[in-house]
Specification:
The protein has 345 residues and is of the alpha/beta class. 39% of the residues lie in helices and 12% in strands. Among the domains are: 64-152, 3-Layer(aba) Sandwich (Rossmann fold), CATH 3.40.50; 184-318, NAD(P)-binding Rossmann-like Domain (Rossmann fold, 3-Layer(aba) Sandwich), CATH 3.40.50. β2, α2 (76-92) and β3 form a beta-alpha-beta unit. The longest helix has 21 residues, at 40-60.
């Protein structure tokens, strides 16, 4: 009697319309066929270029998209992120403003600022950079943002639009991942996808987007039993848990597509050695800077995955690119009816 045959790992790829990867199917041999690296910088540049083209066309008709960023307090990481967002806006041609309330600002003061931005017609997108100072009711502030201007896609109304597949604004990171999959020619419909993490910012909207694209979805979290076994079922595995190198090769089926959302800065020498043994180039960087940015996926996974996102240079650049795209989308949805041809663009 013939026993059940194990499904061979396959490297799934197909030529995407943008030509990032050429997709073939063949048995996977780890050492001869390293994972295809999904270049987030390249895809982000495409998205931003498309947004810039749209902004130019809209501006020529007197409708220039506008983005307001609210940065409260003195969080160094937030300041870096906001600088990147403002710079991207300028490069895309989007009008941008940065509002910087002091670290002792109150919930009421921020609500008044958001209300003013809601009223201003030239502002199409409002982004409240998190975290806010501890004395501020962050949820109350985020809920105050007009859903039509919620370019982060966090408002319950936009969450509802996503779940019912209606037009709305989608969280930037999950939307960027879907763009990466599509533009890299990676099949989603009919595939089994596993998302590790159930945050409102990444995990939940990521699962919903994959489900809307006809994937079969499993969402894992801290209470999931035998997490590696569940993850090994995945054709597409998305790691968004915030733990450096947690996803090892035991979590990954050969040939799977692995999306690493993690951005973890490690400073411990022992942890570095665990993640990057015998890697002189990384060791030099770690020694020089005293830290290293790593993802949730262990580097060894690249030996068996069919395709994988690097950290940095994978998912990160897509988040800001989609923010630009969302701002353009918000402008079209809010004001585009005044210029009907823009709604068809």
């Amino acid at each position: 009697m013939t026993g059940a045959r194990a499904r061979p790992g396959k490297r799934s790829s197909a030529a995407g319309t943008q030509g990032h990867t050429r997709m073939l199917e063949f048995p996977f041999t780890p050492h001869l066929m390293p994972a295809t690296i999904l270049d987030g910088n390249k895809i982000a540049a495409e998205i931003r270029a498309e947004a810039a083209t749209a902004v130019k066309a809209m501006s020529a008709r007197g409708l220039r998209p506008g983005l307001a960023v609210v940065l409260a307090g003195n969080n160094p990481a937030s300041e870096v992120y906001v600088r990147g967002k403002v710079k991207a806006s300028e490069e895309t041609g989007i009008y941008s403003e940065k509002h910087t309330p002091s670290a002792d600002t109150t919930t009421e003061e921020l609500l008044a600022l958001v209300a003013d931005l809601n009223r201003r017609d030239e502002i199409d997108g409002i982004l409240v950079q998190l975290p806010l100072p501890s004395q501020v009711d962050s949820k109350k502030v985020l809920l105050a943002v007009d859903p039509a201007k919620d370019v982060d896609g966090f408002h319950p109304m936009n969450v509802g639009f996503l779940s019912t597949q209606r037009p709305g604004l989608v969280p930037c990171t999950p939307a960027g991942i879907m763009e990466m999959l599509q533009r890299s020619g990676i099949k989603v419909a009919g595939q089994e996808a596993v998302v590790i993490g159930r945050s409102d910012i990444v995990g939940k909207p990521m699962a919903m987007l994959l489900l809307n694209a006809n994937a079969t979805i499993t969402v894992c979290h801290s209470k999931t039993r035998d997490l590696p076994e569940v993850c090994r079922r995945a054709d597409i595995l998305v790691a968004a848990i915030g733990r450096a190198g947690m996803v090892t090769r035991d979590f990954v089926r050969a040939g799977a597509t692995v999306i690493d959302v993690g951005m973890n800065r490690i400073t411990d020498q022992a942890e570095f050695k665990h993640l990057f043994p015998n890697n002189p180039k990384r060791e030099e960087t770690f020694r020089t800077k005293g830290s290293l940015l790593v993802g949730d996926v262990h580097p060894e996974v690249a030996e068996i995955a069919g395709a994988i996102t690097p950290v940095p240079g994978g998912v990160g650049p897509l988040t800001i690119a989609v923010l630009m795209s969302n701002t353009v989308k918000a402008a079209k949805m809010r004001r585009g009816s005044r210029v009907p041809e823009l709604m068809r663009a």
